[in-house]
Amino acid sequence: MLRWLRSIAIGSAGLAAVVGALLYxxxxxxxxxxxxxxxxxxxxxxxxxxxxxxxxxxxAPSITETLYALGAQDRLVGxxxxxxxxxEAKQKPNIGGSIxxxxxxxxxxxxxxxxxxxxxxxxxxxxxxxxxxxxxxxxDERTVEGVLVSTERLADVIxxxxxxxxxxxxxxERLAELKRALEGRAPRRVLFxxxxxxxxxxxxxxxxxxxxRWAGAKSVINSSQDWPRLxxxxxxxxxPEYLVFAxxxxxxxxxxxxxxxxxxxxxxxxxxxxxxxxxxSDAVNRPCPRLVDAIEQLARQLHPEAFPxxxxxxxxxxxxxxx
Length: 323
Prior knowledge:
The chain has about 325 residues and is an alpha/beta fold. About 35% of the residues lie in helices and about 15% in strands.
């Protein structure tokens, strides 16, 4: 997530120059004999998508993951930086950063469809590709339900309706089971730490805030900004019950927390003194199907008593009994 926040966009003038050169040097996307699919993407743009979709470029790691989940990896011909899940995605041709992809490399891949996301890609990039004659479908996931709907819609766009329906039905069932397990339990008051220096958390309208709600939690930060910067004094005043960190390696996350405990100010948090932390997969940072894995993981850490486990003799026992 921090890597997204620190990305630096190239200037509009530079992008315009690149587009101008490509318009004269590169033919438009290849036309198919079949009638294109006329649709509206999640940002309200009209898109005519060549049929069938044989070659796809992803402009975001979350899109890359979703395409793999939909079984479209063989049609994925280009990805952007940090497309690292599943691991095979790192072997795909890379066209640079999500905010400033290399348009010349993208054009050379001759995609039938480019998939972008409103949260990460610039509208200038989408418009530039459209002027070059490429079909660009943009997603806009703002809630957990929005992630599921977006997955279904993208499946339909690329001709993977059955795979998408099956995938999303399974995810919805898992969320329904989670809701039943947490029913009647008070949500934990948490601080989701995106970055600690400067201290950055999440706003109330982000899909991450909604993911916390599904996990039986509520952010102590009530900001209209998506990624608000906070003062440590404010957090101490709010005294969250838990601190939530996302990390691809739980061991590294634990080491980072140990270092944080020694910093001035953090010691004043009850959650730090009581070691009430939750370290979950960084899948929570991406609006794609694997988000549900991270939600389940967080729920089990915040509410272990809600998830009885079977012992060797077959009897159920509380997950927190050994604590």
